[in-house]
Amino acid sequence: MKQSTGKLTIAVLFGGRSGEHEVSLMSARSVLSVLDRARYEVIEVGITQAGAWLTGENVLAAFEQGKVAALLPVCLHPDPSKPGLYGIRSSGVGEVLEKLAEVDVYFPVLHGSYGEDGTLQGLFELADVSYVGAGVVGSAVGMDKGVFKDVMRAHGIPVVESVLALRSEIETDLEAVIRSAEAVSAYPLFVKPANLGSSVGVTKCRSRADLAEGLLEAAQYDRRVLIERGIPDPREIEIAVLGNAAPQVSVPGEVVPGADFYSYDAKYVLDNSALNIPAVLNAAQEAQIRDVAERAFRAVDAAGMARVDFLISRSGEVFLNEINTIPGFTRISMYPKLWEASGLPYPELVNRLVELALERKAERDRTVHQYRRNA
Ligand SMILES: Nc1ncnc2c1ncn2[C@@H]1O[C@H](COP(=O)(O)OP(=O)(O)O)[C@@H](O)[C@H]1O
Ligand SMILES: [Mg+2]
């Protein structure tokens, strides 16, 4: 539904409640800078760390400066008969909802929990709106490293050996968790919160003492913690997938972390990691990575976009490490750079994602929700 201007209205959502709030602001800065204003009416919606949705003028700049007091609280109603964004204003009688704008496509540029994990996508589904990226299942399975690995195993896709532990088990019987972790493999082991990204809470453990510390660290961030075999000096290869039912795969890229592993600091602080695009791989490895990336995308029912990350051992074995359904999206991030290297410039990539969101909504709308009994 185009508005009177003939433009599509895109609501770009950024910030959010996860530990990747700041990363989201960086991604959103780039997305907002390339959205073609001749084509789109753009509404910025910032979500605070506490979960408040705010809009107004120059929302992103206000978030970057931490000065959000003047912005207007908004909400998306879960009732599909009340579409669009509503402003929430205080009046003498309480809070009043006031229709602000119709929105054609929601573009969540949110990483991690409450943005990339299916929860926000659940609201989009309830509200029956078009949105960029994977739906509820694809987002949730892509986010949860434990469930994701099990799904990959069920599809015969190679992932490293791992075991899950609950926070409650770590707290009540650390010894038993350590024993089950040591049964997975010799050290080094990697410990990670099941649902997080940007390497927050990820520890490389070389000893039992490291493991105990890493488990407690990861357990702060999630109820479930994944412990897996560490691949010594892995090559880290990432590839971008774009599409819905017939996804396309980009050229592969390689990350060379500027630290012992691709830690939070290596990603965002040290600024000494290199991205090599295209990655130099032998033909068999490249073919395997392309094929596995597409199969993984389909297996989790991803949509729109995803970046699929691999680890290659020194002996050349390829393991799928993770899928990111809302990958880093700055101009210097791997996902847009992989598409640029594959012939799709960043502004066109964003246009394509909007088209894919509309296409997926049209496909969803074909689903019958009332049982049609045969006469
Ligand atoms: N099993 C592993 N073996 C070797 N390195 C690993 C392993 N798992 C993770 N790493 C390192 O830790 C980084 C972060 O782990 P990852 O699973 O990608 O979590 P995140 O979602 O936070 O990016 C990887 O990029 C890699 O450098
Ligand atoms: Mg990663």
Describe it:
The protein is α+β, with helices and mostly antiparallel strands and 375 residues long. The chain folds into three domains: 8-131, Rossmann fold (3-Layer(aba) Sandwich), CATH 3.40.50; 161-229, ATP-grasp fold, A domain (Dna Ligase, domain 1); 233-363, D-amino Acid Aminotransferase, Chain A, domain 1, CATH 3.30.470. Helices cover 34% and strands 27% of the residues. It is built from twelve helices and 17 strands. The protein has helices at residues 21-34, 59-65, 119-127, 136-143, 145-154, 167-172, 174-182, 208-221, 264-269, 283-299, 334-341, 346-365; strands spanning 8-15, 40-47, 53-55, 72-76, 85-91, 94-101, 105-109, 130-131, 162-166, 189-193, 203-205, 224-229, 235-243, 248-256, 274-276, 304-312, 318-324. The protein has an eight-stranded mixed sheet, sandwiched between helices. A five-stranded antiparallel sheet has the order 15-14-13-16-17. Strand 4 (72-76) and strand 5 (85-91) form a beta hairpin. The longest helix is centred in the C-terminal third of the chain and has 20 residues, at 346-365. The mean pLDDT is 94. The protein binds adenosine-5'-diphosphate and magnesium ion. Adenosine-5'-diphosphate (ADP) is lined by residues 160, 190, 192, 196-199, 202, 228-231, 234, 236, 257, 261-262, 309, 311, 321-322.
Q: Fraction of residues in helices? A: 25-40%
Helical/strand content category: alpha+beta
For the record, the CATH class of the largest domain is Alpha Beta
Outline type: globular
Strand percent estimate: 25-35%
CATH architecture of the largest domain: 2-Layer Sandwich
What's the number of structural domains?
Answer: 3
Which superfamily, in CATH terms, is the homologous superfamily of the largest domain?
A: ATP-grasp fold, B domain
Radius of gyration: 21 Å
Give the distance, in angstroms, between the N- and C-terminal Cα atoms.
Answer: 35 Å
Poorly predicted spans: none
Name the strands of the widest sheet in spatial order: 6-5-4-3-2-1-7-8
Mean pLDDT: 94
Number of DSSP strand runs = 17
Characterize the main sheet: 8 strands, mixed
Number of helices in the DSSP assignment: 12
Query: Which small-molecule ligands are present, each listed once?
Result: adenosine-5'-diphosphate, magnesium ion
The string of secondary-structure elements, in order, is EHEEHEEEEHEHHEHHEEHEEEHEHEEHH
CATH topology of the largest domain: D-amino Acid Aminotransferase, Chain A, domain 1
